Predict the structure.
Amino acid sequence: MAIVALAAIGYVSGSGKVPWIAFIVAILLFVFLQMGKSEMRDRYWAEADQGPVQPRAYPAFFAEWVSASLDELRAPESDIDEEKHSLIERASLMQLFLYEQILSGSVPFMYGDTYVIVPQLLIPRILLSRKADNP
């Protein structure tokens, strides 16, 4: 989605026109694929790591994702209500994120003091006798 958003920003900036039809189609596609996202995560992020999807497997992967989204679309209403509740809970995390961002602005930073010891770490123990005392 980020790549599509960046491409859209570039297109609008360059042409001065807003492609409303393309935007609506992209949003509908993302909403549709979002519906099957949890099932795809269960399949591909399980404990048995299958590794990344190879480019030659993209058509089958997206066909499977569309099938999962269609299954979710046909699911009974009770299952959909749980997912809507989950989306509302995830959206509420934005408030916590912004609150943490505000708080981190008031915390003084170290301004690189944590990196002062790095040059000493690069010197072998044979050349730096102090280093041998602190294993």
Summary: The chain has a mean pLDDT of 80. The longest helix spans residues 77-104. The helical segments are 2-15, 20-35, 37-44, 58-73, 77-104, 118-122, 129-133. The CA atoms of residues 25 and 31 lie 10 Å apart.
